[in-house]
Design goal:
The chain has 20 helices and 15 strands. It is α/β, with parallel strands linked by helices.
Length: 551
């Protein structure tokens, strides 16, 4: 149940804490006082789309906290699956003017996705603007399965897993190529490609080495001339660089001074370095002798490497990767007959199991649908819709992760009216009563801990209002109910009453909530009955309270 709701800086609310009771909680007050703001705040902390315009004027952020306790066993199990094992769940959400949202669950930072999942387990709500789920026929199969509970949900999960297995094995069969002619053609192509790459016998870095070598050969004449000139300057002939350095070294070796010794050693080091350069240049000169035959061989080899790279990936690494994958694919296809037969046998078992379980799932759904139809119609009759018709239509479709079934709720509010999709037949008031009937029977399975109704009594009154109140009172026997209402016939069934009002102070408007005592409850019921609170209205309110309220 929702134990308490703490709201800060949301619209007309500066700071407000509401402690709710475990039964039927009634929120009353004049239009515009801020009742819907309370529900907007609750939806916000449960994961609805944030709206910066709700941040109170003059403030930088809004914050809402919701504490849930006494959580039912079914909800606990679902929460445990999400990693929450505490006896209480505290949801907290902050929204800043910059649009930054911070979410915490039991003090730990969390995500919007997790918040929505937790919120859906703890609380279900209905307002005049929250009928989209029920009106959309795509959601009807999930609503039916949710009502059915574990038996169907477990079987549905098995069907889903088998469907995914069948999908995966179908991909494997397709990858082997069911057509022998196509498979043989692919084998021939792969064998050609593998042989072409392996026969090329390319070595990593080979292309760069050959390019360097052919570049040297193309410039061999210029290289030889340049090295010859350097050779004359560096050789040990008279006036050469090396000879001059040797003279300098000899001259300085006769002197024994620290700085001079250092210079002599450096000259010796330079001399050795130049000698090494000289030897290297001679080696280069010997290597660049132009050989027409060798040049042609290198050029052809480069063309082959470029051709292989162009066909199979552009780089050495990509070519090797292509070769590896081609060999793996070839092995698959060579063993294709065996694998194909193996996969087809596996698929046959999976499909048989899938069809069997999907059929069982469909049969269970039909039984559950009959129960839902009967209960919804009984609820609608009690709500003054005695001529209404309600059916759950089944259509067998191609199998999917949901099984064979396509399900749609169809409805007619009046005798002689064609039964059609909910979205095409139900008016606002009729939809409100239909939703109440639906929520009433769904409360039996304890799928949530708290159920909220925002003006569920819209478009009704009189005796039907009393029936609506009775339905809400019935629901409270299973789960906590929080309801905004303007009808005394509905309100008189409440356990805890909260009066929402707004006041002006120093040019600011503030919303406040007061938890009413019994005499205040009667007074406000009388006000709802007649506007002006007279002795007759008070007496009538007491009579309604005594007649309908059962603690």
């Amino acid at each position: 149940m929702l134990q308490s709701l703490n709201i800060k800086n949301v619209a007309l609310i500066s700071s407000l804490t509401i402690d709710f009771g475990k039964g039927l909680n009634i929120l009353i007050g004049e239009t515009g006082a801020g009742k819907s703001i309370i529900f907007d705040s609750l939806n916000f902390v449960l994961g609805s789309k944030p709206d910066k315009t709700l941040i109170r004027s003059g403030e930088n952020e809004m914050k809402v906290e919701a504490l849930f306790s006494n959580i039912n066993n079914q909800a606990k199990e679902l929460l445990n699956n999400l990693g929450f094992e505490d006896e209480e769940i505290l949801l907290s959400r902050i929204l800043t003017l910059e649009g930054k949202s911070t979410i915490r669950i039991n003090g730990c930072i969390s995500t919007l996705s997790i918040l929505k999942q937790v919120g859906a387990i703890l609380l279900d709500s209905y307002s005049q603007h929250e009928s989209i789920e029920l009106l959309n026929s795509k959601n009807h199969i999930n609503l039916l399965d949710k009502y059915a509970g574990e038996n169907i949900l477990e079987l549905k999960e098995e069907v889903k897993n088998l469907y995914l297995k069948n999908f995966e094995i179908s991909k494997k069969i397709d990858s082997l190529g069911g057509d022998k002619f196509l498979r043989d053609n692919e084998i021939s192509l792969l064998e050609y490609q593998i042989n072409e790459i392996e026969n090329a016998n390319i070595v990593e870095g080979e292309e760069e080495d050959l390019k360097e070598k052919i570049n040297l050969m193309n410039n061999s004449e210029r290289i030889v001339n340049a090295i010859n000139n350097c050779e004359q300057l560096l050789s040990e002939q008279n006036d050469s660089c090396i000879t001059c350095l040797q003279y300098c070294q000899n001259y300085l070796s006769t002197l024994n001074f620290e700085k001079i010794n250092s210079c002599r050693e450096r000259i010796e080091s330079v001399k050795y370095e130049i000698e090494d350069i000289y030897e290297t240049l001679l080696d280069v000169k010997n290597d660049v002798d132009f050989d027409e035959k060798e040049f042609q061989q290198i050029d052809l080899r480069l063309d082959l490497i470029k051709s292989i790279y162009k066909k199979y990936g552009g780089t050495y690494e990509n070519v090797i990767n292509f070769l590896k994958k081609s060999k793996e694919r070839l092995n698959e296809l060579v063993d294709g007959e065996y694998l194909l037969e193996k996969y087809q046998n596996q698929q046959l078992i999976i499909v048989n199991d899938l069809n069997e379980k999907a059929l069982k799932l469909s049969q269970l759904r039909i039984k559950v649908a009959q129960t839902i139809e009967e209960k919804v119609l009984n609820q609608l009759k009690n709500l003054g819709m005695k001529s209404s018709q309600f059916k759950i239509n089944f259509e067998k479709t191609e199998i999917s992760s949901n099984g064979f079934d396509k399900i749609e709720f169809v409805f007619s509010a009046n005798r002689g009216q064609e039964i059609k999709s909910l979205s095409k037949t139900a008016s606002g008031g009729e939809l409100s009563r239909f939703m109440l009937a639906f929520k009433n029977i769904f409360s039996e399975n304890g799928s949530v801990s708290t159920l909220i109704f925002d003006e569920i009594d819209a478009g009704i009154g009189g005796e039907v209002g009393v029936v609506v109140g009775e339905k809400l009172s019935n629901i409270k026997n299973n789960i906590q109910v929080i309801c905004i209402t303007h009808l005394p016939q509905v309100a008189c069934f409440g356990d805890d009453f909260y009066y929402v009002s707004k006041t002006e102070n120093e040019g600011k408007t503030l919303t406040s909530v007061k938890h009413l005592q019994e005499d205040e409850i009667v007074y406000n019921l009388a006000k709802m009955i007649g506007g002006d609170v007279s002795d007759i209205a008070i007496s009538h309110a007491k009579e309604m309270r005594n007649k309908y309220y059962k603690n």
